[in-house]
Amino acid sequence: MYGLHSLFEAFKYQAFVDFGYLMLLIYFVAMSGVTIYALLQFHLLYLYKRYHKENPKIQYKQFEAHDQDAPFVTVQLPMYNEMYVAERIIDYVAAQEYPKDRFEIQVLDDSTDETVGIVAAKVAELKAKGFNIEHVHRVNRQGYKAGALQEAMPLVKGDYIAIFDADFTPRVDFLRTTMAYFEDPKVGIVQTRWEHINADHSMLTKLQALQLNVHFTVEQAGRSYGNLLLQFNGTAGVWRKSVINEAGGWQSDTLTEDLDLSFRAQIMGYKIQYLEKLGSPAELPEDMNALKGQQFRWNKGGAQNVKKLLKLVWNTDKLSGIQKMHAISQLLAYGVFLWVFIAAVSSIPLAFAFEQLGISTHFLSFSVLGLFSVAAISYTANITAAINRTVPPTFWEKVRFFGLFLSFMPISMGLSLYNAVAVIEGLRGKVSAFVRTPKYGAGDQQTPKQKAAYKAKKISWITIAEGFMALVFAAAVVMGIATNNTAFVLFHSMLSFGFATICYYSIKHLRFR
């Protein structure tokens, strides 16, 4: 009997050890994926700094404001239920310093609420003032944004198509500047940098700006300088109409039709001209559920494009090895949140298995490289980036940045479950609607902040799961300290704080009445 008991105990111990090694392998693979991605981002930082060192003063070309030789442009404004911002974007486009007879405006309106009447009245007003503007209202949302853009193609009179989402407020010289770059026949797209109308509205918008500034400085400009594939960001850019048609048109089989079409166009040999210093101001989501919806669409659409484009990128002979490597990294980037969540979950049992495995916790310190890389990239994008800066950053600017960055990291981790679900759905091929990000006219004094017709009304199961994960990682912190297994205490503390924050604001920002 004693021998059987000993055998059983030995079996349990071996099973525990085997499980520990399995968790170690899973954690190592997940963190390796995150670290490799971060190091490739660091390469973009190198390209970005080299670009600005060689081009300290960038001067953009422009057409004259009344140049009758300026190309004819169609400006498309796709929108769906945008009652708070519909008038504003139409007015901003109408105010372009571009010959009035050299551009037309198409409001591609799929709305089902008061937006339809608001747009109709504004279009009638501008028509009476001599503007070439049409209200194209669909009674269905077939294909969502991509469907609206594709259905409108036969109506386009211009050889060039500028696209703005409803929350943008483009500069008056947008068309004058972007159109000058199509003199190069290889330029198929001109993309401008997003600016943020309401970046200082709250901690939530500050953290969004911190992250988006990385994409619109280090990533986009670094890829441009390195002759790598860029991304059309769905808005605040201009397309050559012939390139859209030649590349296969707008397709609605992914939720990020912008990434899809821009990759197809670049693989054909066309390039994206990125204008880093030409800002196009827009709103950031001011409530957590709107942000999560936006993140879900971007990550699920990114995963859908992995299935659609990865083989195309790998097999093409029109891209170099370095172009393929960065293009694949860009596509797989949407899986980073999945890797983070897998690492987080596997780290709980792993935290209590190191001693039995006989492995030093220093073995996993390689992941610090990724953290340093992310910090350096964020610092450059938000502090030292050569955009509208004429003096060196102050001490307090640097302090403010590090304070925001220390908040950004755990809150980003807190979004890992939500975005991991999005990635899994995208890879599985699960079909879902294009849920647009609600905007409320930030910066418009005539739009009360109380207006919130588009706010979420129900608590999702993921929000409940986020609250549960916050408790799980808090318990892991307590147990780790109590048992002196502190290797992951800081990591688990950040995860607990991040999940708790996301859960709290997801509930706080609901519309209960």
What does this structure look like?
The radius of gyration is 25 Å and the shape is globular. It is α/β, with parallel strands linked by helices and 513 residues long. It has a domain at 73-295: Spore Coat Polysaccharide Biosynthesis Protein SpsA, Chain A. The protein has 17 helices and seven strands. Helix 2 (86-94) runs parallel beside helix 3 (115-128) and helix 6 crosses helix 14 (395-414).
Sum this structure up briefly.
By secondary structure, this protein is an alpha/beta fold.
Q: What would the keywords be for this entry?
A:
Spore Coat Polysaccharide Biosynthesis Protein SpsA, Chain A; 17 helices; alpha/beta; 10% strand; seven-stranded mixed β-sheet; 513 residues
Supply the CATH architecture of the domain at 73-295.
Alpha-Beta Complex
Structural class: alpha/beta
What's the overall average pLDDT, rounded? 91
Distance between the termini: 67 Å
Gyration radius, rounded: 25 Å
